[in-house]
Amino acid sequence: MKLDGKVALITGAASGLGHGIAERYAAAGAKIAIADIDADAAKRAAAELGGEDRFIGVTMDVTDEAAVNAGVEETVSRLGTVDVLVSNAGVQIVHPLEDFPFAEWKKLLSIHLDGAFLTTKACLPHMYRQGSGSVIYMGSVHSKEASPLKSAYVTAKHGLLGLARVISKEGAAHGVRANVICPGFVKTPLVEKQIPEQARDLGISEQEVIERVMLGGTVDKEFTTIEDVAEVALMFAAFPTNALTGQSLVVSHGWYMN
Ligand code: NAD
What is the C-alpha separation between 22 and 35, in angstroms, rounded? Predict the structure, then answer.
């Protein structure tokens, strides 16, 4: 599947899954805005992909409406438009519910949900004007399943399914579609950080966190890879029709099947 000349804006693309999607989209011919709160890492990642006529680093805190609007405008003015939005920036914060600090709950929901809302709101006028666009949210198996300690994350990831379905209905008349990718555990910095935290909170070893908590439900005890997720992101972005709009796809080695 190809994205020749298409412009993709990917949030949280300085690291992990977003970075892998940027590499896959680059190989498929896209122009890419790497948007991240880590400005230096975003610019570095864009420079590593190649020249500034195709790859730009954009500083963006997805919870800040002015920063999101400015980043989308910069993308459109430097790369021409925005055809694909991958709203991927995210964090994980784990606590038992009764100890979950309210400020951390709000922070997590804001990055995942305000981030998806604000980036979508800023990109839609450009997509509507050209009569086409693809909005892709990075959900999770936790868009469909729950785990202890992850009340804020599970709530946010479930919420993205609803937002994508509304965009599918509102965007259809303008040729804009929406999808959610729902990965299982992928070894990125976000997951590496969770291993000792969950071991502490659940009172088990780090090895048990990996074998029981993270991979216990898979059919083959394997982590999902960045490449697996990037391939699905390419499929949703490059799919030739709007037939898949509103759908989510679980990529989890059988951890969750639906
Ligand atoms: P990661 O920590 O490697 O990358 C996250 C990126 O988001 C970082 O570059 C970070 O700087 C950026 N970011 C954080 N807050 C931001 C903000 N306010 N504005 C802009 N950028 C911000 O994590 P990852 O594992 O690649 O996670 C990416 C997405 O994938 C997240 O939404 C996460 O919930 C989701 N996800 C990850 C896994 C997994 O196992 N790794 C599984 C399912 C879903």
Answer: 10
